[in-house]
Amino acid sequence: MNNRNSKNKVFQRIKQTLKMHPVIIVLLALLIIFGSIYPDRFFSPINIKSILRQFVTLMLFALGPTFVVLTGSLDLSYVGVWMLGGVLVWMVKPILGIFAIIMIPVVGVTTGFLVGVIQTKAKIPSFILTLSLLMTYTGLAALLAEGYPRAVEGYEFITAPIIRYVPSTFLWTIPIIAAAIFFMKYTRICVYLNAIGSNEEGARLAGINVDKYKILAFMLSGGFTGVGAIILFQHLGGSAQMELKLNTLVWPLVAIVLGGTPLTGGSGGPQRTLLGAITFTIFYRGLYLSALHPTMVTLLVGVLLIVAIIISARGLKGVTVT
Amino acid sequence: MIQEKSMTRPKLSPEWLRRNMATIGPITFVIAVVAVFQIINPFFLSYQGFITLVYAMSYFLIASCGLTFVILTGSFDFSVPSVLRLSALISVMYIEKIGFLVIPLALVVCLVIGFINGILLAKFKVPSFLATLGISIVLEGIAWYLSKGHLQLMHNETFRSLATSFLLGLPAIFYWGMGVWIICTFLALATAFGRRTYAVGGNLQGAGLSDINVARQRIYVFMLSGFLSGLAGILYMSQMGGGSVRIGADMAIPLFASVVAGGTALTGGVGGPHRTILGVIIITWIQAGMAMLAIGQDIQMITFGLIAIGMSIATMDRKRIKIVK
Amino acid sequence: MNDKLLEVKEVYKTFDEVVHALKGVSIEARKNEIVGVVGENGAGKSTLMKILVGVYSPDKGELYHKGKLVPFPGNPKEAAKRGISIVYQENGVIPWLKVYQFLFLGHEDKYIQFMTLQKDSMKQQACEILQELHVECDVDAFMHELPLSNQKMIEIARAILGVRLEREDSDTTPIIILDEPTAPLTDDECKELFRDLLKMKKNASFIFISHIIPEVMEYTDRVHVLRDGNLVAQYDLSKEKMTEEDLFRAIVGRKSSEYISRSGDSEALGEDTILSAKNLTKRGHFYDISFDLIRGSCIGFFGPAGSGKSRIIRTIAGLTNYDEGELTAKEQMLKPDELPHVRLSRGIGYFSGETGKELFLNWSLSKNISIINMEKILGKITRVIQFSAERKMAEKIVQKLEIKVPSVGTDCYSLSGGNKQKVSVGKWLERNPDILLLDDPTIGIDVGAREDIYQVLLEMKRNGISMILVSDEPKEYYILCNKIMFVMDGRIQKVLGPEEFRKVMST
Q1: Is B323–A244 a contact, with Cβ atoms under 8 angstroms apart?
Q2: More exposed terminus of chain C, fewer Cβ within 10 Å: N or C?
Q3: ipTM of this complex > 0.90?
């Protein structure tokens, strides 16, 4: 009798998890589809390595903004933090040596603070604010680097191989993701961020200092992006690129939305973004391996974004959308 | 009864200044910009210089007018650069095969894209900036697919003359730009369509109660934006004579900045194409001036990013919005 | 036995030196009781409550806690120390928080060790308090998954918990202010809520704010009645025999001298029914509303707030839909979920006294008047706005309604409340719809402007415009309506003529 009960319980939990995270079904479906179409190429060590590599980039960019999305805002500045941070590392290396890498999280947190203050005090919508900031940072980075990506030596240990076939950066990423999830589940800050996204007015009535926590959200976002960018910095070749590619900007958003964190905020978090990032990476790599023209793939990503938003926007009852 | 009240208040009182800041500000800015650049480079206001400015400004003005209408309703359209690019590429790539039919073809495609943007917002309740962001990715993909990334050159001289033939000392595109601007201003200020646009942005609830089909108005506005972006793309191709998928890269923020700098607020309901021209002048003339001074792209980007942020702060109607995300 | 827990004496509060919200109000709450505070919109209830929880500070007054004179709280946390806490009418619930998270929201500092939340002990405490207060639910569920009455109960539990966690001495009984708690609930959910409240009475006292007379009569022990910032009556329901109508009259009644005589136009023009409703029902709000509106006449829906009268008029306007029944205008049946602009094309206009919703405040007068009269100012062939026609139209209205303004180009922002209302009415005067729905048309404006607006409305009636009125001002019904439908609990209870109405409503 006991066995039956515990089996039922497990079943119940699986059902509940699936209901809360429908993206898992998509993920499994994709794995099955791609696995059956080209099992050799898809599950080859090379492909898996590529998947992991791409996942790292995507995840490290998408992690920080997740905290902001929780509150219902958007943070598009992550690419800028990485670019500007990278250039600052190059500039400061002669002075600070190996510790120069700290510049990136510093830029991240400072940016977050700036964005948060402007957003809450001047009431500018976050997406246009962070997008404009992104443009400013791109220019600033290019200015300081005098136009060229500047390579920095001394951080190769980050990408030095540890386990065969597994990119080391992936191993470095795991603790960061774990930290984010821990943050989400066990701190008061994240309960408040959730509350603000779910019902900002209600949170205010409950006595929460909404402005303060929004600023903290942006700082958290910048901080996580900054730390992640340390890894990315070396992962992507030891320098930051100078060009602003639309894809780099939008794919992390797709990962967040796909994972199931609604853009209006209130629920979700890093654990969902994790799922979204995995699913997106597999989606992308699977299509990439197919006979489809690479530009078609980019197109499908755009469609995916819209579809994901439409589905997640279904929950917007009576909310005024502009 | 209407009281006859004589305006005894002196014109330059601080209150008058504050109320009319939205108009005085941009005009002063333009004068300052022109003055600064003229001092640094005396060729700025020369005939050659002016032509350069015209070329920089005209297609940009057309696209900005379209974007203005969307922002007036309180929405955003990030797809303007991508639509411009697609329309330019369509005209250059298919002119050999179907001749001048490319023009209506491109315009129809852009109208459809605008319609899709509008539907995503009105029917599917997707926030406009996300919907148009997603659409612009799709459009970018299509642009890549069609052109395979290669540079396309326009050889058709008649097509090129659309923008570059000279009339009364100025290139045709000047007249296109001005013409579109005049029509847009007229549309905004003197037609029922314009009134409805302002109404939707000014008071969404009130608009719904005032005999306005809000959903339809929004869709129309996006279609207008798409159409004008498409027109801008065609003229761009005519002016430049060639292009690739790089067309319109980095155009989004300056475009937005020019609308906001002119005095059209993000909150909607205020401003309009008559204002946008000031913002366009500011942005494109700064751009051209910087290019003339060989100031790098990087500083330009910084400038426009800061202008966008700064002008948004200045023009937002903070009284109306309680919760901003 | 006098166990007065909380007493406020002679509280005065004025906003901006103009709005006298409270003029010397005194109320008291005793241990283990539910005391009601009732009054119409603007009577001062929410101002008083906000003073009690520390959101506002009073200009004058005294506060006694357990018999001792104490200072008014400066913020909600201080109020909680004294045992006072509030459950707001709306927006209080955070849908995507789990029950135990919501219960402790704002008080997590009591459960943090090494920077992390002690979730297990939080959950356990949550279970305990919910059990104590007889609320059954899963502490791990999301708030939005629970039925509305449960959500309200948990809000109340949260308020009590908040007091317990913050209070200075453990002897302090929580005093929980409930601001219109039953507004979003169905009848059954209300019953559940009150059943639980009665059980909770042992552990806390409640101040119950409401307009809904049957509830107040049934569940409160004592009642304070506020009107226009004054305490006009106080009843001990356990001792005195009162009917619902007595209480209603105490809330809304006006002195008989305040009714100006009607100018005789009570005969409607003709016999055709321009609008008719059959069994209109919206579950949870109104049921079986049927009436026939004759051209040129005015029907009023009168009742206490929460009776459903506002919903009815908004449904006819197209702002919400209805579940059952038929609505027919000009012999054409309307669809339940049409938007307002469609209703307008059928001849039904909606005018709300809340001009912020209706007017475009940063537009000029003329633009506000012309926006629903576009056809009249567009050129016949060119469809272009004729600015001179627009200006003339506005000037005509300004003259007719005596709107005091330098020119028709002035922004509506700067107009006084009364003038804004006049602009709003003016645009409808120009539009001349078949049916005009009046939703609180004179809210918040001075007497002089009111009289002017009544004159205009009466003239519109004479010209054949039919109207439906919903308002909080009994005088308006007397002046404007031919028939007055008394609505309570979502149903039409009585139909009165204007003179009957006046007799019933005079105190």
Answers
A1: no
A2: N
A3: no
